[in-house]
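Appendix B, record 7
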Amino acid sequence: MDYLKSNTNNKKFNDSQFLNSLIDFSPLYFLSIWRDIPINQLSNHVPSKLISDLSKKFRYLVEITKFPYQCVLSSTYYLYMLSKKHPELKGYGSERNLMVMALMVTNKMLYDNTYSNKTWSEISDIPLDELNIMELEFCGVLDYNLNIDPKNYGIWENYMRTLVAKFESDSVKRLNYLKTSRGFIQENKLNTRQKIYNPPSPITPITPVDEYSSINRNRKHSVY
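Structure tokens (predicted):
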């Protein structure tokens, strides 16, 4: 697909930095849209072990397959479309399995030479027979409409870059705050479970510009 060569005017990070940040952000984003929970409230509703395990598995899969950021972006787009097309499914099933499916289908859509299902089974720890069934179900609920229009991809990339940049900014601000005596005392006083992977909500929630309105009109809450 042409968007493997996509360029954007919103490149605050270089590709390597963006990929690393996107790997950290994507599992949280998916948990947020799949469970209808703002990112800054995930730790109040989702077990920290699940968040940690999901994040580690996602990073492992992306790094072992050596996927570029375009593949990761496409996988998040599929997961978003899944939640939009079938909101009745949200909250059900294994988030880990869905993320594996999104990455696997992305791999097959973007490249002629792809990893076999047997390889995906080995690196994901999902039995091959189960993986094959999951693939059919995943593609089926998306009506096998897996081609991403380059224009939509460009909008999606800019949107995700905006969210990732905010995620990075909030994470740095939180770390700097916790280094102060006031921040340290307040953190212990509140006994909060919020960690670096779950940044505080920005004062002004991110509001996508008009070109993103079609992407977000069905959301019940801001991502943050």
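Remarks on this record: The CA atoms of residues 71 and 91 lie 24 Å apart. The two ends are 31 Å apart (CA to CA).
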